[in-house]
Amino acid sequence: MSAAGGWRARGIPVHLVTGLLGSGKTTLVQALLATPSAERWAVLVNEFGERGFDGEWLRRQHAGVAELAGGCMGCSGAVALPVTLNRLLRQTQPTRVLVEASGAGHPAEILALLRGTHYRGILQPAPTLCVVDPQQLRPESAVYRQQLAVAEVLVGSRADGWSAAEHARFEALAASRPQARAVKFDGAKASLDWLQGPVQPLPAWLPSGAEAVWQQALQWRASGGLALAQLAALQATLPGVRIKGEVAAAEGGHWQLNSTGNLQAPQWRPGPGAGQVQLLGTRAPSLAAWLAAGWTLI
């Protein structure tokens, strides 16, 4: 693959970043992008829903970001993936690529695409990172088990807030996957060393089966903004649901929501917000409290 100016895509390391919904994948990617490096990176993000907030937030930090929204990159997006990735390579001419998969995606199918004949000689397989949060391990999920099976690096997220039980849970998980390197991530600082190391062939057998994902978009219609206490109360009504979006803050500026249930407090940001959130989960919850607070379904 060549471009104007003589640049040729050849042997570009490509990393897949996997993990459950809300495990902290985008936070890890943001931290890696913020780590000083002489390399030129490109990021491809896959999200459920018509609007992808992760891609928007990453673009504010790093120009070389493309987004594949609307479903699983390895199934419904399999045709769109090469088109989007090829455009990203031409536009950014990177020396390293990160691919952030949806938390409900099929990592083995994505890796098969990235390592297939279409990209042979163009992309160089590099370690796959699986982000895990000891507060929400799901061994019953075939997608989760597949994420673990293809990982060269297990990244324990939100490690700065772990309890003794959560430390033990992560250590036990790491011991069960001795072929993968285990590292702990505090949500702020990441190491480029995590991107180094050998790559294993894809396992001959992997757990299969799609994971049904419920999704719903909500729009903020009420006048004024929401206070932090109000947001915390609303998030507490949706345990286990992935919540992403932006809404005006009562104090001015806007809140950036990026959590699973009430695991993570919203972040205040200056300037106007989108006034919209995307909810994802394994089952439809009651949205009565959100609707009563001034949100409407879209």
TrEMBL record:
Alphabetical list of Gene3D superfamilies matching this protein: P-loop containing nucleotide triphosphate hydrolases (3.40.50.300)
CobW/HypB/UreG nucleotide-binding domain span: 13-173
SUPFAM superfamilies associated with the record: P-loop containing nucleoside triphosphate hydrolases (SSF52540)
Superkingdom per UniProt: Bacteria
Name this polypeptide is given: GTP-binding protein
Lineage: Bacteria, Pseudomonadati, Pseudomonadota, Gammaproteobacteria, Oceanospirillales
